[in-house]
Amino acid sequence: MNRIVNHPILDKEKPAKEVEIFVDDKPIIAREGEMIAAALIANGIFINRYTIHKHKPRGIYCAIGRCTDCIMTVDGIPNIRTCVTEVKDGMRITTQKGTGVWS
Question: How far apart are CA 54 and CA 34, in angstroms?
Answer without folding.
Answer: 31
